Amino acid sequence: MEKERVAHEEEEKERVERMKKIKEQFTDPNSQWEKDKTDIQNEAMREKAKVEKAKAEAAAQEIKTEEETKTVSKEAKSDSKVESKVESKAESKGDAKGTKAE
């Protein structure tokens, strides 16, 4: 009977050790899930910020291009006005000379 008790104690001890090893190998996955979740959220936030920055830069570039286009248009208009005035003066002088010659 003593042998049975000792054998039973040994079996119980082995079972406890086996359970301990299993628990060590398979730790609580919740902490790993939380870590992974946080990493994924951080990566998503970085990606979103990167996209928003690119959009803002594109919008700024578009505004700059529009301003340059407006400036060039204004310069072209003022140049054409000056040319028109010069041409009309030349034509009026030509007409005046032409009428005198007749």
Strand percentage, roughly?
under 5%
What value does the Rg take, in angstroms?
45 Å
Give the end-to-end Cα distance, rounded to a whole number of Å: 151 Å
Give the biggest sheet.
none
Instruction: Report the oligomer.
Output: single chain
* Count of folded domains: 1
Structural class: mainly alpha
Count of runs of 4 or more consecutive helical residues? 2
The percent range for helix content is over 70%
Spell out the helices and strands N to C.
HH
Shape: rod-shaped
Please provide the count of β strands.
Answer: 0
The poorly predicted ranges are: none
Average per-residue pLDDT, rounded, comes to: 82
What does this structure look like?
It is a single chain. The relative contact order is 0.03. The chain has one domain. The protein contains 2 helices and no strands. The mean pLDDT is 82. With 102 residues, the protein is mainly alpha-helical.
